[in-house]
Amino acid sequence: MTSPVAETMRAWRVHSPGTRQARKFEQAREAVPRPGPDELLVRVLVCGVCRTDLHVVEGDLPVHRPDVVPGHEVAGRVVATGAEVLDFREGDRVGIAWLRHTCGVCRYCRQGSENLCVAPEFTGWDADGGYAEYATVPAAYAHRLPDGYSDAELAPLLCAGIIGYRALRRAWLPARGRLGIYGFGASAHLAMQVALAEGATVHVLTRDERARRLALELGAASTGGAAGVPPEPLDSAILFAPAGELVPPALEALDRGGTLAVAGIHLSDIPGLNYRRHLFQEKQLRSVTANTRGDARDFLDFAARHRLHVVTTPYPLDEADRALDDLAADRVHGAAVLVP
Length: 340
Hints:
Elements: E1 8-16, E2 24-31, E3 39-49, H1 51-58, E4 74-81, E5 93-96, E6 99-101, H2 107-110, E7 121-122, E8 134-138, E9 142-144, H3 151-170, E10 178-182, H4 186-197, E11 201-205, H5 209-218, E12 222-224, E13 234-239, H6 247-252, E14 254-262, H7 275-279, E15 284-287, H8 293-305, E16 312-316, H9 320-328, E17 335-339
Parallel strand pairs: 10-11, 10-13, 11-12, 13-14, 14-15, 16-17
Antiparallel strand pairs: 1-2, 3-4, 3-8, 3-17, 4-5, 5-9, 6-7
Helix pairs in contact: 3-4, 3-8
């Protein structure tokens, strides 16, 4: 049985994006939203803090919805359903992720690449997200969550985990291959565990000493500085840090035929590349654009079969601004999560 739905809730809104001193990012009390006919109303139990949220708050990503509530890693429970919803009921444990809606009719949707839809909508960018006590989600884009995890552990799986999983697939890591991971935060520490479970050797390169220690604890074969040289040539690499200056050293670290996947939605400018040194011998540079619902199902099924070690740093919902500041300054251990 679910508890009664409140009439009002706390929610953070991005009234004016900008840096810490310039932005207007405030919490207020407002009416709880009502679900549409095909939507769920979800009580937010935990919401992960993603670097994409930081890009929205700071203005790196252009405004799609004025005064939006950010947050797209929601672990919660259904407290109300729209009249057309058949697959969920009150009390169900569900997740809300980044991908909120696709058109279903463009050529990308028809070919199974809904992450490239020409008219998509995203949680916390096009529609209000989870930096609040309640949130809505179209039932067709809500996710069943695996058992055996706490709410705080589940929240980061819904973006950090899913996008890390897609980035790993985009990196075309061969069986028992050698993977390099550049940057080691919420997404990277989950993607590494998937790669290790599949037999890979993983080398982690990051500027943060505490992150290097965590990587070794989780099974990395080696760690080094962000622009360091791994101890062996790489079959594949994933760049999680939003730092374009790391693209050349990551490409240079690849063996012949290797692939570098860039996992972020935002990246600083990439310096000039030297064709012979960085791309010759059939090296590949690939981007990652959102994810499909199929990616989410595959990853959550993997998480159900393989118990992942999810490292989180909790913050009260009232301190969402501090959580973002800590994320920007690389002070977060693992994944930051907001707990209403």
